[in-house]
Write a structure and sequence with these properties.
five-stranded parallel sheet, Deoxyribodipyrimidine photolyase, Crypto/Photolyase_FAD-like_sf
Length: 479
């Protein structure tokens, strides 16, 4: 292509990486100087507290990576259109490139902005990269959206292979003069006092390098045995890639291709099971794309008549991991401590909130959105609706997890509970998931006083189950 003198703006959003960043690569091919930009938009809504911590460190990583290419990251806050127009005026840029996003507010902003800038004579191009396939192009044989996961998986598995991930550019052409930028330290993304994220760095290294290392560690380790081991929270058997994918530090195409050609030493069922989880993420975005109010409205509107309880005391006990059910409390405390929760335990704690406490799934979804480092608008909403029974291809509401049996099945020795609920550390394995059934002598020996050092159950499982089924029956009768 002919060498151009006018700069191109690359607007980074949830694609905080240099490798396999199609908008960035296209900007390099455009021929002119490249101006990387990150906007802290108000219109799209703030990130949750935990993900703001992640964003801070991810941007630090991106800034350092760009500096190695001879470039820098321009920072701005506010309305996207005003910011871009000001930057275009200041730099003489004639093109704006970005990678697509799929949350409703972001898509609405991009659609209007793309047309306005094109009307002004600018070149505006958008690219894929946050998903394996564009939601608008994946359709059933009848031309509609998928509502069931299994045929969706089959369509993607048997369809076109995701593109091979592209390497990062080694250098970026800088503009003659860099535009003004806000100071990163002024953004204050990290928590103050108390520093509730102080333990996050024990397991997380945000940024593109951290994402690639996490993927390599997983492929070399836990991917073998993934199908069986992934359900046991005491095992380090999951990829922990979700927060890296959420902010685009690694592309799903890079993750997909990292699992190719491994069948010689890793069982094909382990690879397939992991890929199905990656495609479940795609399915969630497919649902969000076709049902933009997924986080606010029941997919199945029969649940609009459900009789949710307003119980702030129980909700507070759930958020603090003080329900009296150890597997639930361990999960909620892991969430506090590390900004994440094991996938199996997420289902258990969500089921407990929705079905044992009869608290609206939307309250749980909002809590996870604020406390998860991997908070994701599609996966978060779709998974909560899946547990509630109100979503697409959902688990039926009458499937009510028994937190005692779930703990005994998936944390048989209580290692996960002991790690995150240390007051139960010395309790005998027989009672680790039901301390309320332990004899006084056993509790005393373990240094436990129910109601003092560890709470009694805030609800009786059998009675809660009956209450939940009665509430569900009322909805069925109503409809």
């Amino acid at each position: 292509m002919p060498i151009k003198s006018s700069p191109v703006i690359v607007w980074f959003r949830k694609d905080l990486r240099l490798s396999d960043n199609l908008a960035l690569l296209a900007a390099v091919e455009h021929g002119g100087p490249v101006i990387p930009l990150y906007i802290r938009e108000k219109a799209s809504g703030p990130l949750g507290g935990a993900q703001q911590w992640w964003l801070h460190h991810s941007l630090v990583s991106l800034i350092a990576a760009l500096e190695k290419t001879g470039s820098r990251l321009v920072l701005a806050s506010g309305d996207a259109e005003k910011t871009l127009r000001h930057l275009i005026s200041e730099t003489g840029a004639d093109a704006v490139f970005w990678n697509r996003r799929y949350e409703p507010a972001g898509m609405a902003t991009d659609k209007v902005l793309k047309q306005k800038l094109r009307d002004d004579g600018l070149t505006v191009r958008s690219f894929s990269g946050h998903l394996l396939h564009e939601p608008s192009r994946v359709q059933t044989k009848s031309g509609g959206p998928y509502r069931v996961y299994t045929p969706f998986w089959r369509a993607l598995e048997g369809g076109e292979e995701p593109h091979a991930p592209a390497d990062a550019p080694k250098s970026l052409k800088a503009p003659p003069t860099w535009p003004k930028s806000e100071k990163f330290d002024d953004w204050n993304l990290l928590p103050g006092k108390p520093d509730w994220a102080r333990d996050f760095s024990d397991i997380w290294t945000p940024g593109e390098t951290g994402a690639r290392e996490k993927l390599a560690d997983f492929v070399d380790g836990a991917l073998g045995g993934y199908e069986e081991d992934r359900d046991f929270p005491a095992k380090d058997a999951t990829s922990l890639l979700a927060p890296h994918l959420a902010l685009g530090e690694i592309s799903p195409a890079a993750v997909w291709h990292a699992t190719k050609g491994l069948s010689r030493h890793i069982a094909s069922n382990d690879i397939s099971r992991f890929r199905k989880e990656l495609v479940w993420r795609e399915f969630c975005y497919h649902l969000l794309f076709h049902f933009p109010e997924l986080d606010e409205k029941n997919w199945n509107d029969d649940f609009d008549a459900f009789g949710w309880r307003d119980d702030e005391k129980s909700f507070d006990a759930w958020t603090r991991g003080m329900t009296g059910y150890p597997i639930v409390d361990a999960g909620m405390r892991q969430l506090w401590q590390h900004g994440t929760m094991h996938n199996r335990v997420r289902m258990i704690v969500a089921s407990f909130l929705i079905k044992h406490l009869l608290i609206d799934w939307r309250k749980g979804e909002k809590w996870f959105r604020d406390t998860l480092v991997d908070a994701d608008p599609a996966s978060n909403a779709a998974n909560w609706q899946w547990v509630a029974g109100s979503g697409a291809d959902a688990s039926p509401f009458f499937r009510i997890f028994n937190p005692i049996l779930q703990g005994e099945k998936f944390d048989a020795y209580g290692d996960y509970v002991r790690r995150f609920v240390p007051e139960l550390e010395k309790l005998d394995r027989k009672f680790i998931h039901k301390p309320f059934e332990a004899p006084e002598e056993v509790l005393r020996k373990a240094g436990i006083e129910l109601g003092e050092t560890y709470p009694r159950p805030i609800v009786d499982h059998a009675k809660a189950r009956e209450r939940a089924l009665a509430a569900y029956a009322a909805v069925k009768n109503h409809t």
